[in-house]
Amino acid sequence: MIGNTAQTLIQISTTPIKKMRNLQDFEVPNDGEISVCEINGRMQSMNLEYANVNAFTTSVEKHPKIHITRDLLHPVSSGDEGRALFLPVDVPFLKQLTQVYYEQGFYEALHIGVSSEHIVVSKGSRLLLNLLNYVRKVQVIFNPNIRYSSTSLINNLSQTKNWQENTIRCIAWHPYYTKVAVATCDDSVRVYSSETNFTPLLRCKQQKNVTCIAWRPMSNTEVAVAHETGIIVWNIDPNSLVARPSISNTIILHRIEHKAVMSIVWSPKGDLLVSAAACDNTLLVWDVEMDRTSFLKRPGGNGNVLIKWSPNGEKLLSCTNGVVFRVWDCRNWECERWTVLSGRVQSGCWADNGNSLLFATNNDPVIYSVIVKSDLIFAKDVENASNKAAAIFDVAKVDIDGVMVGGLVQSMESDPKGRQLAVIYQETNCVTVFNVVRQAGLQLIPSSLVVGLPEERPSSVSFQQNFESGSCLTIGWSSGRVQYYPIIYTDLNHTQDNCQLSGNNSTFLNPIMHSTKVSRFL
Amino acid sequence: MNSNADVFIAKPAFTYKDLLLRKLYYSVLCSVFSQLVLLLVYLLITKFDLFHPITWIKSTLVTFVSLTTWLYLVPLIVIIFAQSVICAKDYAFKSTYCSTRFQKLIAVFSIHNFVLLILHVVVGGLLVWMFLSLSGGPYQSITTTCNKNGACVVEGKFLLILNGLFIGLYFFLKVYLTEKRIFFPVIHQGKLRQFKASMFPLIKECLVSAVAPSLYFMLFYFIWGSQLLNGFKKFFNLQPPQTNEGNSVYLYAWLFGALYYFSMNLMRFFFNLFLTEPVEFPLVKQNDDSLTLQASINMNNFPIIQSLACLDLKILSQWFPERRQVFFTLSQPGGHPHNWNGLVENILKLYAEYTELLNKSTDTIQPEKSAPQSSMMSPASCLSPMQSNRYRNFRNMSMTYGNDLVDIVDISHQNLPGVNLPETIFHVIQEKIINFFNLLKVVLGINFMFGELPQANIQKCLANGHLIIQTSEGLSELICRSIIEDRFGIVQKDLPVVITSLVELKQSLERLNKIPALTRKMVGYDDFNYKMKGAVTAAVKRSLFNICKHFEKYLHEFPLSKEVVLQLQPFVAKN
């Protein structure tokens, strides 16, 4: 069990890392072709005009076809559409003041107050305005994040590439069913299912600037949507045919100081929801129904960017917007503290059934791995567990046959079984897929390179949670197209059947699977 | 029995008295001790001197350890001690539910409350008096020597002490009487962490909530202040105050109000902190008095122990494989799963009582709803002979008694007209009289006072909702883990009964949706009940989902009634 000893990670980024793998090992699909799937370790590509994944596998045949074009988006209401229709008229000052207060808030009303003819009102407003400005300045000293406007702040810190512009902001698969929720830039969430063509649209006034979606485990109806000022937990009855569920089906969670919610995650049993906000250094643990919270607070950083629960449910990764990231032990809620040399952790994910952590920073194109000490299964892990992260893959930008690949990492996702890792980059437009193998620590082995249609950039990636024949990578492209990229092992299915027969004890069988794959790739 | 179980036998046994006393002892001790710390911090702030730090600290410490301070402090500590000991009873023991307004009224005017009221008010005055006296400055004493012989009253101190008394009264009526519920934190961190995390929000909350009573007091003092002051002067034969007080005294009034709130809330916080700290219950009985987890789950008389046992069940099911193993072992000699049987019997009893209470309260509200429910509520047929034998002492919740038999033969007399005339008149008169009495009851407020309050039972049910949440989550997790960990298949024999009880509970909870007061969010009013209804329902559904998900392939092999299988459909459906 982890104690609360603080550990410090010192990355020696200046020393050359010997023989680190790099992106040159990837193969680019032929010119005019795009990659559609990977079968038995071999990437399959097709001409982009006739590309059809069903030619290779039937595993995603029934998956919902998602392409959110600009026509499908709802106009985002700013609340003052009606104003353009009316000519401005002179209204009494008091009326104007109340109108501005009602429509634009207290701060704007003060600005109007300053321009008043009454000396008392204008002086008073100016005084209040100055006071508010001083308060704001003091707040900025303590928390520099609030200097930015919230949308640009989210844009900078989000896992989604080009969050502000791209149509698709977030993709989340249901843990047990072939059901996917897609958040789009019009502040709405659409739920697609393989069983029905009916797609409920989750949208309400409070839901502005969606950042993250999470399906609740142990439930088939509930989905939590993180937006700028809070979280909305929707309850969608799968048997209902209401196209736009009303707000009465929601639980609205909101705390005034917990703003720009960036990331949310449910506990594996679905009883707790943890949220991280960019301008609040406290992680909130919610009892959703009772609307009560517990705080997880430690010094360091002034906001949180990313949280991820380990697949075995024992650990929680939280990344601050500073150099610190933490691994929480969910039994006693103590944490291990880790630091990076500079910048912050841009993205991270769990691998190897929650025993290791993969992460990348925002100023260094390298993927690191950390072995998290826990109730160790294998004795050799004790030796491997160290206080330092190992740099395991160099993802510096390279040119492979005229295609630019790599650079600083935007987002990383691992598949639920921990065998694949998908990475998207801040500056280049390819998605790289790695195999994760356990051999002398963790190793990443280049697997396939997914290139979109011309002018398409990946905005968000996600893995299907219940894909039985391997892994199904889901990529949301900037065009609004959602691509399924199945990674299938025909012999693995066989192994998996055996695994289920022996009583769901997949934890112990995982190493065997890894070793078969290692022999395949090495 | 395997060695794991032996480890847990070796654990020291404790009785519920030990456990309760230990927790309450620490809470009371911390409450008293916190008063000393509060005083020290107060002295540090009032004697603050930036340019002479050593003098500052020295003078603070000298004041703190001086005899005068302790002379002030001892009565305060004694009172605080008495107060916390009396409050402890409120937190730790069973609270009574009042079904009529009259009972509520009687409960409010009890001797216990009266003593607490006095203590709250006295602490309010004493706290302000002590703090003002020790900090020096113009309000050190309530009298000053005037130019002439005789003493003048210091109005500021008089006002502040009065304010302290008022705040004490206000806090007791507004906060203490209404909010006695203990909330378990969402996650259990160390006590020091909880303390650190809660202090800042607590201070903030106290500053805000002290504003209203301070304003009320100022209004009160503005109207009656001079009369009170005159009375005080006359009684002690004092001179009128020499100087007028500035506005700063109002600021002090607010700050001392906040201080009082903080000190009282701190006491509540400590009770909450120590009482909700998880306890590891022994799973095997060691002597006659010792507690076991299984028995504690049904300990209705000590709600706090019951809650802790349910919490422990949830924690052990998630985190402690060795402790889980105790439930999956057979006794030696005999080979009986006593540990598991005890657990499941107690939990099912808890569910049965809960479901019964829920059904009773929902039935009384909608008596006209006599749609044929028999098919809906009869999942009992699923019990195998062995199980029904084991639970033969339980009233079977799923059976509908009597309803089907009522209208088998419907005999009605058709009396001749004219013959029954006197009877009709009699009936009419009787009806009139009854109506008159009913009207009288309404007009005189008898119904209002003595009539049973609607939903008193439901409130009682929902107040205990966290027990159901934790046991259902714990039990379902235990059952799911049994797939791998239970070598003897102990759990499987009881699985149909557990599922059936959970389904019944779910159905009863869903019937709560028909109660108007619980169907929509009402601002302020009944908010707790509305939320708790959602929380319990969601937890029971999650537990069923968890079980269905893990036993998906084998569900059809369990002897479940059609109705239960139908109810489980949403959890095994593919979309």
UniProtKB/TrEMBL annotation, chain A:
Question: Start and end of every Aladin seven-bladed propeller domain?
Answer: 150-488
Report the record's Gene Ontology biological process terms.
nucleocytoplasmic transport
Keywords of the record, alphabetical order, are: Repeat, WD repeat
InterPro entries linked: Aladin (IPR045139), Beta-prop_Aladin (IPR057403), WD40/YVTN_repeat-like_dom_sf (IPR015943), WD40_repeat_CS (IPR019775), WD40_repeat_dom_sf (IPR036322), WD40_rpt (IPR001680)
**What are the GO cellular component annotations?**
nuclear pore
Family matches, as Pfam families: Beta-prop_Aladin
Task: Return the PANTHER family for the record.
Answer: ALADIN, ALADIN/ADRACALIN/AAAS
* Protein name, as recorded: Aladin seven-bladed propeller domain-containing protein
Taxonomically, what lineage is the organism? Eukaryota, Metazoa, Ecdysozoa, Arthropoda, Hexapoda
From TrEMBL, chain B:
What InterPro entries has UniProt attached to this entry?
Nucleoporin_prot_Ndc1/Nup (IPR019049)
Give the principal location in a single coarse category: nucleus
Q: Which residues cross the membrane?
A: 24-45, 70-93, 105-132, 158-177, 206-229, 249-271
Q: Which residues, if any, are the signal sequence?
A: none
Q: Name one GO biological process term.
A: protein transport
Its membrane topology, per UniProt? Multi-pass membrane protein
One Pfam family, short name = Ndc1_Nup
Q: What is this protein called?
A: Nucleoporin Ndc1
Q: State the taxonomy lineage.
A: Eukaryota, Metazoa, Ecdysozoa, Arthropoda, Hexapoda
